[in-house]
TrEMBL record:
Residues 27-128 form the Phytocyanin domain. This is Blue (Type 1) copper binding protein. It comes from Helianthus annuus (Common sunflower). GO terms for cellular component: plasma membrane. Keywords: Copper, Glycoprotein, Metal-binding, Signal.
Length: 181
């Protein structure tokens, strides 16, 4: 029995660590997609950013030719006026990453002459998200599958329900716990 409980605690620890890592490690976005960080001809970075939902933990990857571009993180004034005199940080490798650590606006520009004015600038808006991460200890499996208005069942997925993973884990833990008793 002691060995079984130790195995349970080890499994629980590994699963919790996986959940925490998933919550910390977000999506990775290549800025400008296949075009990278450059002067876009057919689009703009505001169009690119508006098609994304950025969250804390996401990573922005800037791919560019370092002899022709750079990336400066600036404040809102620097972004609007393309002012390169007071950057918060400058990236120059051509393969730079920026991890979003908090909600808010993040502003990036290229400091090469006329590039920012030509549209090589990015405003990333990260909304404050709040999730209810509580689960009931004696969850009923049927209560985890929402009913649609037509009466047919639809399955909750991580994309549609942020608590899906935690609910699934509570079922696994309940099943393991019952086996231990």
């Amino acid at each position: 029995m002691l060995k079984t409980r130790m195995m349970f605690h080890l499994m629980l620890s590994m699963i919790i660590e996986g959940v925490v890592m998933k919550a910390v490690i977000g999506e990775v976005y290549s800025v400008g997609d296949s075009q990278g960080w450059t002067i876009l001809v057919d689009s703009s970075y505001s169009t690119w950013a508006s098609s994304k939902s950025f969250r804390v933990g996401d990573t922005l990857l800037f791919h560019y030719n370092p002899t022709a571009h750079d990336v400066m993180q600036v404040n809102q004034h620097g972004f609007r006026s393309c002012n390169i005199t007071t950057p918060w940080k400058t990236y120059k490798t051509g393969n730079d990453s920026f991890i979003i650590k908090a909600p808010g606006h993040y502003y990036f520009i290229c400091s090469f002459p006329s590039h920012c004015e030509a549209g090589q600038k990015l405003d990333v808006r990260v909304l404050k998200m709040s999730y209810n991460l509580t689960t009931t200890p004696r969850a009923n499996v049927s209560s985890l599958v929402p009913m649609s208005t037509t009466g047919s069942r639809s399955v909750a997925t991580p994309a549609t329900d942020p608590n899906h993973l935690l609910r699934s884990l509570s079922i696994v833990f309940a099943a393991i716990w019952v086996d231990l008793l």
